Amino acid sequence: MSKNLIKIKPVGGVGQIGSNMTLVQGDNDIILIDAGILFPYEDFFDIDYLIPDLDSIPTPSHLVITHGHEDHIGAVLHVVKKFPKIKILASPFTAGLIRKKLEFNHHPYPVTEYKHYDQLGFHDFTIDPIHVNHSIPETVGLLIKDAAEEVGFFFISDFKIDFKTIYERPFDFDKLVKNSKNLKKRVLLCDSTNITSSTKETPSEHDLIPVIDQIFEEAKNRIFITCFSSNIHRLMTFINLCKKHNKKIIPHGRSMISYLNTANELGMIPDFPTVVKQADSLTGKEDNIVVLLSGCQGDFRGTFRRFCIGEDSQFKPRPEDTVLLSSKAIPGNEKKISLLINKLSEVGCTVITAADKLIHVSGHPGKTDLKMLYEKFNPTDIVPIHGESYFIREHIEFVKTAYPSAEAHYFNNHDELIITKDLKLKIVDGETIEPVIIHGKGIVLQKEKISERRKLACNGAIFISLKLTSTRAKVEKFTFNFMGLPTIINPGDEKFKRFLENYFIKINFKDEEKTNEELRIAVRKYFDQILGYKPITTIHIL
Fold this sequence. Notes:
With 542 residues, the protein is an alpha/beta fold. The chain folds into 3 domains: 4-200 and 362-440, 4-Layer Sandwich (Metallo-beta-lactamase, Chain A); 206-353, Rossmann fold (3-Layer(aba) Sandwich); 447-541, Ubiquitin-like (UB roll). Helix content is 30%, strand content 24%. It contains 15 helices and 28 strands. The longest helix is centred in the last third of the chain and has 20 residues, at 512-531.
């Protein structure tokens, strides 16, 4: 019989922003909370994303999803392929997003919907979804309680506190307090994303409405807006203001269309067909339109980028256009977005960012919001999650001054947080397990292949093909090709051709493997003298 009540182990999402996935284990239950992806911090040799190593975890019976952002649902396909009997639980909107994602990848899979007032029951613990505010609808924190209801974990990786929201209910503190007040031990695992922000209290989505209203009133021509496609409440503000100002709104980009269609199918957007139009329904002469562009982070294939550089097939920037960036740059994307703003400025567009006017608010808590949560939940222990390692350390320091009655704990991926039957909390350091790199159509790319790609990208490549005589004593003919080399090395380089002809005279081909390697080294040295570096060289002997 185990001496432990509950064990919590993050396999992604702690010490990093993304790849959220957490194991919750009792004597009889193993469940996963969320299944997210981690985007590379830069355009990294065409890597699509990273996911936790699913081979490192035991087989879970259920996957409970807190909300529909990609860093929480992006790896669902990989999870259902790895664990084909797992049961997925999600809110209706999140379930709709997951179904679309799985169907798009030709892998439909059942998703069971839960509501915010439901309780999810397991053998060793129960889970109460607690409605919270965030930048996507139907976000919940999870109150996990042992069977005897002595210990409770409030797991809340993403949230804000918004008492003025007009699109959803405020943070459900009443349910949280009611369902946790009799617990002997209360452990809070919560969001660290904004711990270093100078904004103490995160503004409400409602605060944006008068600012955007004025922009719509003053703009006499086309308006283009880029924001996170998943921020349905922000999109509803744009739609409502379009109705007020008699403008048509056009979602442009696959993710923007998909998220809006999902929300519309669930009846979340009133008068949708009268205001929202498809891009191909326009004649190209309309000025009284608002176009929603996906790809707000300047993604290489994103619609916002294509529009800014004039490569979009439907819309080109004009001097009289107003362009709103109603989003914040994810760390690492600042330069890409800055370059696109410069492109728009060169055309003469009016560009408005969140630095100019209040057209974006965060979906994460400021320090005042965190302190309010501490006071409402009254935790005995606080374990910062959902943030880079620096943020987590800063969050611990904040807890020491803002709520000293709780003990703060440092926690990282693969560490185990254990509550014993005598209600003691201990954290066991885990072994670092590298994430899995995903490329192309969900294909795993081994880490060592990244080094090969880096060398190919930085050094270029040379391919030499030799055909030997029938006696294999000498070269009958040869060809060579260059890829990624400067134009001072031309395809029919006579000097290099003579180098090879002279080299062939000095060698024999009895030991082809040895000859191949000697020639490869000689060619690399030859180009090192010209270029100052050694291209990747491949020799093929026929």
